[in-house]
Amino acid sequence: MRNSAAKEIKAYCEEYSDGFLIAGDAGFGVWEDFQKELPSQYINPGINEQATIGLASGMALSGHKVFYYNIIPFVLMRCYEQVRVDVCYANLPIVLIGIGSGITYAPAGMTHYSVEDITLAKTMPNLNIISPSDPIQVKKALEYAIESQNPTYIRISRSGEPTLFEENIDITQPTYIKNGNSKVIVFHGSIVDEVIKASEELVDVALISFAIIAPLDEEQTKKILQEYATVYVVEEHFSEGGLGTILSDFAMLHSIDVKIEKIAIKNHYIHKIGSCNYLRKEFGIDASSIVKRVNNG
Amino acid sequence: MLKEKAKNIRKNILRIAHSSKGPHTGTALSCVDILSVLYFDTLNIASFDDENRDIFILSKGHGAMALYATLYEKEYLSKSDFFSYYQDSGSLPAHLDKETSEAIEISSGSLGHGLPQALGFAYSKKLKNLESKVYVLMGDGETQEGSIWEAAMLAPKMNLDNLVVFIDRNNLQGYGRPSELVSFEPIDEKFQSFNWDVYRVDGHDVDAIKKAIDSPSEKPKMIICDTIKGKGVSFMEDEMKWHYFIVTDEFLAEGLEELESRDEK
């Protein structure tokens, strides 16, 4: 997915001279070609995320289309106030690309996980939040971000995920991967492989990708929440504050009587050590845990 | 002429401080001479749509009244907008919101945001081969923010000889003196060691400020301006309480009278 993002950003910057990439001392194996071919549209300012977001804002205010790339804690958390004030308060169409969504960096440890980033991102009312699940959705996310007049946050997982979606998908709407009448699973981001595996064992359960978490497509979201009695929200994110919470709020706001079951990581500081697959099992978000929860629900 | 402008700006600061019943009067008064030089001598702003305009950033956003009064003096702000400062459904908040006027280049109020953004403006000008410059005014207490030092380390590396930064060194912050709270001085040597071109001037001497601005430089320039918080109104000068105190009817009358009479001397 990183490579899909890099390809899209490079293509934009080749075509438009206003394109500018800021990589916050990250991107080994990702940006070498970009640096070589477009040196005047690239900077690695070092390990200084507060100043770097400010720098990005100053450049955006000067008319550049800025792409900022870093590991998620250094996109949103370290420099939260710069994103809030310099980027979002000013409503600058900067594209913030965060790598390592969820626990895909395991066993790197809590400092490198991104299990509360959607909660933080949602505090900024004009920030588009996109959590793609495959390289096509990443491409569509960047196209959306480039067109948008608002700032965009794109959270992507650590590395290569297989291509799932067709080139012509409309990322602005929830995308059905599988139809089903009894229950529905909605998900976003890197947990896609577990969800797909689970859905192969589930009968008559629909599967829907919600790549764009903000702004939600209200009409489609209403339709889905009204259609099913129970909606299972699977995400590699804290259970409180992610898409599950957003959909619960949405249902309440629109008086939709639906049960929302969150299959996500319980909010806690992660001290357990292990690979991403191991931790997913531990936290009950792997395929077999999903199957059990949905069948028992 | 600059002294006349500075006097008008100070008087108008007192007027809106009075009508608003808000704080930060001392903060606003300390940087008036710097702003007068910038807006009535240095800055080249033919139009705010011109990308080759000079950029001014007030990073010490709590000094907003000083910028508003300067922009009003410059006729970039209307009288009705200016006097709606701090009022219900007014146009100007206590800290800067860039939505309020095209003359306000960034929102500020939270400290340590202006200098990093100035790096972005200055770097863009370099990429576009624009001759114009970027000016930033920050508070002395503001240099306690880590982001200032991130930017301080970065700016010389980016060869930003088109960046000029002022520190309003009034030696009073919200609840103490920077020189007593943290290892503040020697602030000039700190920036020198970061490879900035550093000047230190009397921040109320308009000729000295101009001279420092005009000195040729091949590095980012730091002009440390020694100032007096509350400058121009003797009972406010160097008094921490005037970060907070309200300008009452009596204080206003006394302050305006003093500003007038000082000028006559």
The CATH topology of chain B is Rossmann fold
Looking across the biggest beta sheet of chain B, what order are the strands in? 1-2-3-5-4
Which homologous superfamily in CATH is the superfamily of the largest domain in chain A?
Thiamin diphosphate (ThDP)-binding fold, Pyr/PP domains
Per DSSP, what share of the residues of chain A sits in E-state strands of 2 or more residues? 15-25%
- Tell me, briefly, the overall form of chain A: globular
SS elements, strand count of chain A: 12
> What is the chains' assembly state?
heterodimer
Superfamily at the CATH H level of chain B?
A: Thiamin diphosphate (ThDP)-binding fold, Pyr/PP domains
Order of helices and strands of chain B: HHHEHHHEHEHHEHEH
Give the rounded overall mean pLDDT of chain B. 96
Number of strands of chain B: 5
Rg estimate of chain A, integer Å: 19 Å
Low-confidence stretches of chain B: none
Content-based structural category of chain A: alpha/beta
Show the largest interface: A-B, 26 and 30 residues
How big is the Rg of chain B? 17 Å
Q: How would you characterize the largest beta sheet of chain A?
A: 7 strands, mixed
Count of all domains of chain B: 1
Low-confidence stretches of chain A: none
Mean pLDDT of chain A: 96
Within the CATH hierarchy, at the fold level, what is the topology of the largest domain in chain A?
A: Rossmann fold
